[in-house]
Amino acid sequence: MTTAPLPFMPGAIRVFLIAQPSFTELLPAESLTTRDVPDSIGGPFATIRAPGNVGVDPLLRSPMIQLDAWVPKIEILGGLTDPEELAWDIAAMAGQLLGRARAQEFRGSTWKARWTDGPITSVDKTRGADQPLFRATVRFEVHVRAPRT
Question: Do 108 and 77 meet the contact criterion of CB atoms below 8 Å apart?
Answer without folding.
Answer: no
